[in-house]
Write a structure and sequence with these properties.
Layout: H1 5-14, E1 17-22, H2 25-28, H3 54-59, H4 61-77, H5 82-90, E2 96-101, H6 107-110, E3 117-118, E4 125-128, E5 134-137, E6 154-156, H7 167-178, E7 182-186, H8 198-204, E8 208-212, E9 225-227, H9 231-247
Parallel strand pairs: 1-2, 1-7, 2-3, 7-8, 8-9
Antiparallel strand pairs: 4-5, 4-6
The chain binds adenosine-5-diphosphoribose.
Main location: cytoplasm
Active site: 120
Protein name: NAD-dependent protein deacylase
Length: 248
């Protein structure tokens, strides 16, 4: 049975290396609008490419900066949900856990997860658009786009349309997938590459693949277990059951 929690738990109990890949669905219950939902209100008039691309930043840096400042505030105004906290708790229930996220909201870190591999960057950190020099955390408060000492403008570290993912982070994620005994794909539509490739990489080398999503995705047919439903429901249930098995 594809929705068999017990089978999933048996593999998680026996696993040494567990990899968790998350997408926007893991933050949905925190009230974070997904990328496309954030194009509302005064931003509704723009297409994503007009706000989340290098061309958009070159054309109107302040507009792009303002949109990310607004989105970042949305992230700061919400809290991690039960799914984030369960993933943090899972780190203590398995020998090795690598958390890979496509999310930029920083909620995994606020829930206590360490060493998050942020494939698509972070809305909380900036770097220079011209020379790539890291600019540290998003400056608070700031209205104007900060200027780098090279004279270039600072931008969020978020990966924009047409940009490559950070090579070092992607390499670590691929390495983790190659060594995974179990991979959990949580709250992602599995449509955006190369992140969406990671579960296939894990599966090809023999990992047991568990998907958590209320909807079927292109990954569902190759998943060993599909836990249909909310991350905030299934992940605490998995953590609770694993904890009980450890105490038994
Ligand atoms: N629990 C689990 N899954 C959920 C929940 C929930 N509470 N709510 C929604 N989902 C699922 C949806 O069914 C969908 O499959 O989360 C997925 C969200 O899909 P997307 O919005 O496409 O987000 P994601 O997969 O992270 O997109 C990848 O695309 O938008 C770009 O760069 C952006 O990182 C993002 C990338």
């Amino acid at each position: 049975m594809k929705d068999d929690l017990d089978t999933a738990l048996a593999h998680l109990t026996a696993a040494r290396n567990v990899v968790v890949l998350t997408g926007a669905g893991v933050s949905a219950e925190s009230g974070i609008p997904t990328f496309r939902e954030a194009l509302t209100g005064l931003w509704a008039r723009y297409r994503p490419e007009e706000l989340a691309s290098p061309e958009a930043f070159q054309e109107n840096p302040q507009r792009v900066w303002d949109w990310y400042a607004w989105r970042r505030q949305l992230c700061l105004d919400v809290a991690p949900n039960a799914a984030h906290h369960a993933i943090t708790a899972l780190q203590d229930l398995v020998p090795e856990l690598v958390l890979i996220s496509q999310n930029v909201d920083g909620l995994h870190q606020r829930a206590g997860s360490a060493n998050v591999l942020e494939l698509h960057g972070s809305i909380h950190r900036i770097r220079c658009f011209a020379c790539d020099r890291p600019g540290g955390d998003w400056p608070d408060p700031v209205g104007e786009v900060p200027v780098c000492r090279c004279g270039g403008l600072m931008r969020p570290t978020i990966v924009w349309f047409g940009e490559l993912l950070p090579a070092d982070v992607l390499a670590q994620a691929e390495q983790a997938a190659l060594g995974a005994d179990v991979m959990l794909s949580v709250g992602t539509s599995s449509l955006v590459y190369p992140a969406a490739d990671l579960p296939y990489t894990a599966k090809r080398q023999g990992a047991f693949l568990i998907e958590v999503n209320p909807q079927p995705t292109p990954l569902s047919p190759i998943a060993d277990v599909c836990l249909q439903g909310l991350a905030g429901t299934w992940l605490p249930r998995i953590v609770e059951a694993l904890s009980a098995r450890r105490e038994a």
